[in-house]
Description:
There is one protein chain. The protein folds into two domains: 3-55 and 348-377, Urease, subunit C, domain 1 (Roll), CATH 2.30.40; 57-340, Metal-dependent hydrolases (TIM Barrel, Alpha-Beta Barrel). The protein is an alpha/beta fold. It contains nine helices and 20 strands.
Amino acid sequence: MVTLTLNVEAALIGSRLKKNQSIKISNGYIESISDSHSYSDNHSAVKPLCGTLVPGFIDIQVNGGGGFLFNHSPDCETLLQIAKAHQCFGTTGWMPTLITDSVEKMEQAANAVSEAIQNQSSGIIGIHFEGPHISTEKKGIHKASFIRQLSEQEKYIYSRNDIGKVMITIAPEAVSPSLIKQLVDMGVVVCLGHSNATYEQTQQSIESGASGFTHLFNAMSQFNSREPGMVGAALASSSSSYGLIMDKIHVHPCAALAAYKANPNMMLVTDAMPIVGCEDKEFDYFGETIFLKDNKLIDSEGRLAGSAINMHQAFLNAMDVLSISIEKATELATTNAARFLSLDDQEEIAVGQKANFILLDQHNNISEVWCEGKTILQ
């Protein structure tokens, strides 16, 4: 049995920040938590830490990182490189995201995720298929040639039990309420996005089991006084969660604050592209160059093409934009996503949970990162 005890200056235990905590880790999980001054154990190594320990971040929308795009090379090596790039920024759990593509590419992606999960070294919790069952009107940079109706081939992929949590982004106008119910009954987490659906269509999808919204405000029907659209439905639904790209580019700070006040079930996501975690300023996307300009990733037509943000910066931006504490920002960066995906062992720092931690210094910079009790950055 491998054991390690962290004696930390402060730690976010559950939802409370506590000083001088002693956290014992055994085989990747938290075995016990106590006040440091009362801790006594001669059978495990003890490591003192200066700073504040918070749970590792969970990102449910990661397209790439470290110079790699999942769509281009959907294999295990690509996933390991993307994981390494994001772990440096505190992401200990994540969903590789395949942007709208062929069914063959979807199968390759599912196989890669299955292999990576078996290897237990990447923090992967499942797979997110963003498309291909979306609206051409709100496709963004998704390729129209791959947008299609849901077939038995895709349904088979979604039903696999060896790829962790399966999340898909669909448009209500492309997938019927009855089919959404079928998917949810299969265990698929259905999110709504890349859609021009009306408020009523969106409500029908929610009633059929759709439980989330992909990058709120972006690529969806907007809110106005007489037609609330998908944005209005998301903000009015207390049972729904939503991802939000907190880079101060995709969503205006005022809009982000209004969303948080209307529906606190916000999950910080990066929608990260290959340049995160490397020095590259551009990358290839299906034969087209996406480049970084004024901190924006854009295509040749000036359309936003994913983001260049990481979860640590999103976490810091959330505290700034929403005027919230570390405790509340951690809910948005970790807890809400864990609950959304029913990750019962990754919600918080508590006995029985995975030992996924981030150590923040006095300026909230990352000093160290642990994934399942193993140090991956120090």
